[in-house]
Each structure stands twice: as C-alpha cells, then as structure tokens.
User: Which sequence fits this backbone?
C-alpha cells in the first residue's frame, strides 16, 4: 500500500447539522456513544492497510485536530506511515477551499512531493465500514484512471446523489450530479447507481484533472459536478460495487450520510435494532477511537429505593444511573442520571447531568449540559420550540453548554 496516498476531506461547514456543528467540525461530532464520525473512515483506512493519510480540515477544526492527535497517532513515521491533519495553507491565494476538488488542488504540493502512484479520496463524514483494499485491487486490475465506489438506491432518492450509468464491463459512461430524471439500472427501472463519494485516482490523472479544473472560471471545483463528468469523456472510469462480496469486512452494505439532524439521529437509533444493520462487533474490524480512562458504567439504588435501569440502550464508560430509567437511547461517557429521571429514544453526549425527575424523549443533548430537576424535553413541542432547535421529524436538540433558567 506504500504506492497509495489517502486524502480524507474533513473541511465542510456541516450547517445542516447545526447546532451540533456550531462549535465543531462535522467529522468530529460524537456518534454511537464513544466514537466520532471520522473514526469510521479512518478505521476503514487502518484495516485496509492504508498508512499514508492526510486529513484536510478547515472550519472549526480544533476538536477534530485534538481527536486525531489523541486517538490516531498509531502509525510509525520511521516507516513512512502517518495520519496528518492539514489545515488550509493558502498556498494558492488567500481563499478558503472553494469545493472538494479545490481542497486537494490547494494542497497539490503534497501530491507532488509524494511518490504515490494512486490517490484515494474519501469523505470524513459518512458512517460505514468498507475494505478499500478490495476496491484498490480492482482499480489496478482494470488499469482505471478513476474508480468510483457506488451503491444502488431508489430512483425516488436519486436527486440526493451523483448518479452513474455504466456498460456491461463496469465502465462508467455517464455521471449526473443530483438529477431530477436520473438514469436507472438495467432491468431495474426503479433503482439507480449512486456515487458514495469514494474515489481512487491514478496520480497523474488526478493532477491533470485538477490543474485543468483550476483554470476553468465556470467550474464549481467539485468532484461530482466537474471533475468526474469530464474524466469520463477522456479517460477510463470504472464503478466499484460497495455491496460486492470482495473484501474482509462483513457485507452489511450500510452507508449513511449523516448530514442532517434527522439522518444523524436515525443512524444512531439504527445501532439499537435487535440485529443492527451495521455490525460494530466484528472482531477483526473494530472501530478505533480515543476514549478517556473512565471507570465502567454502573447502576445505583437511589435513596428512595429506585433501581437504575437500562433497557435496549448503548451505555458508555463512566455513566452512573442512580435510580433513573434509560430506554432505547445512546448514552456517551461520564453522564449522570438521577433518581426518577426517564430518558427514552434519545442521544446524550459526554458530561451531561440529568436531574431528578427529568423526562427526556426523542432528543439530543450535547456536551456539558446540566438539566435541572423535573425538566421536560421532547414532551411538549410548544415549550421546546421556545428554547431549542427542533428537526423536521421532531428531534429536539439541546446545544453544548446550554444554561437553563433558574
């Protein structure tokens, strides 16, 4: 894998995930109790044998840089291995990144000083597990200039993706970004082939495409809108099926763009299914993260005699439940749940204190929040709307460090 350079794009604003992204980059948003969103992409790199990884950051990147430093300093620089966070260098003018392609173009010097023959371009804000080594093997076997990972989606959802059409050999002959009338799959008029935003380029093909795109004033400097459609006309572009049987990771075919509050909430709730659609428990594919050294979670009988209970929930280290009830929820580290408090269908971030008699339902509570006794959240929509953001599907979001009125 030393002939391959990996670039993880982690600089997006993530405005649709506000207020969770008001003070942090989208890839560093907590997920599944103990993880950050970017952990899934970096874990895939780790298990796929990719050891030269650049993470391009931009907006509100402090917590992301800190997480990468604390949790991902696992490679050996003496062997040419690294996971390096790269903030904007402004080497080609004073602009922020203008698009996904421009982010790499502005760091072209990193490509030019690399001896890699192939470049894997990934997003740092999707939830999935994938063996990139299998995709890279196909890319080399077909001698493709570009290979695009894809999955089939319902035609009704095609306007959310870049949609491809390919011939019988797997070569892509059309690519349309978020089309109203998308091309459909052969013999499946209600299904379309969607790009996952996972690309493998030949190095020389990527450099040439980015250089041409940079000189085009009409370009949005985006891979889906500009780079890929033009490459199809000039070079060999192949599709790689995400749900193929190739690779060492379990074939669960789960991939989620958690770009909105509702999609993020649902992806967390998916983990609570009796048989979760994504398997976090595959022994040879554990998800790596940074985790503070908290003691194990525990339940405690309250002075009133109530037992702390957890039902169908994910509970992280350091959680203490003193006579409360938690059901169908994801609870992050170092949370305190007090007597007679009920938490259901909710996501609780680190260092939250849930006071006595509180009722929480269908909500997300960000870090460092102390909820006063007998507070209701997610119970009365009118009251919630006066204080908090409510998603289109009714998920109530309490922002980080929120101070309740005394």
Assistant:
């Amino acid at each position: 894998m030393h002939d391959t350079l990996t670039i993880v794009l982690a600089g997006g604003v993530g405005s649709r995930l506000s207020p969770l992204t008001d003070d942090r980059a989208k890839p560093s948003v907590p997920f599944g109790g103990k993880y950050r969103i970017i952990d899934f992409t970096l874990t895939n790199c780790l298990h796929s044998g990719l050891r030269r990884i650049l993470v391009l950051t931009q907006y509100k990147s402090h917590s992301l840089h800190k997480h990468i430093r604390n949790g991902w300093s696992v490679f050996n620089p003496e062997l040419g291995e690294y996971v390096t966070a790269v903030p904007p260098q402004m080497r080609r003018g004073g602009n922020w990144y203008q698009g996904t392609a421009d982010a790499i173009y502005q760091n072209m010097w990193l490509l030019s000083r690399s001896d890699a023959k192939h470049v894997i371009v990934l997003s740092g804000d999707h939830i999935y597990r994938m063996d990139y080594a299998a995709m890279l093997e196909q890319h080399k076997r077909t001698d493709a200039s570009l290979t695009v990972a894809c999955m089939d989606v319902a035609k009704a959802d095609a306007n959310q993706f870049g949609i491809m059409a390919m011939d019988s050999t797997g070569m892509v002959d059309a690519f349309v970004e978020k089309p109203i009338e998308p091309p459909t799959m052969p013999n499946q008029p209600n299904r379309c082939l969607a790009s996952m935003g996972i690309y493998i380029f030949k190095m020389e093909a990527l450099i040439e495409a980015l250089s041409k795109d940079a000189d085009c004033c009409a370009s949005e400097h985006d891979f889906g809108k500009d780079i890929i459609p033009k490459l199809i006309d000039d070079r060999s572009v192949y599709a790689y099926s995400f749900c193929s049987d190739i690779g060492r990771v379990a074939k669960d075919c789960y991939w989620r763009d958690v770009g909105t509050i509702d999609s993020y909430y649902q992806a967390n709730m998916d983990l609570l299914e009796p048989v979760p659609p994504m398997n976090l428990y595959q022994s040879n594919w554990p998800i790596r993260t940074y985790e503070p050294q908290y003691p194990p979670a525990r339940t405690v009988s309250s002075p009133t005699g109530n037992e702390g209970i957890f039902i169908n929930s994910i509970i992280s280290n350091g959680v203490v439940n003193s006579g409360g009830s938690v059901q169908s929820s994801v609870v992050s580290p170092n949370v305190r749940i007090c007597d007679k408090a009920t938490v259901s269908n909710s996501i609780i971030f680190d260092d939250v204190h849930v006071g006595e008699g509180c009722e929480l339902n269908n909500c997300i509570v960000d870090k460092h929040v102390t909820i006063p006794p007998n507070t209701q959240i997610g119970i009365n929509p009118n009251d919630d709307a006066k204080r908090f953001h409510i998603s289109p599907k009714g998920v109530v979001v309490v922002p980080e460090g929120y101070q309740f009125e005394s």
The domain at 4-270 is CATH 3.90.550.10 (Spore Coat Polysaccharide Biosynthesis Protein SpsA; Chain A).
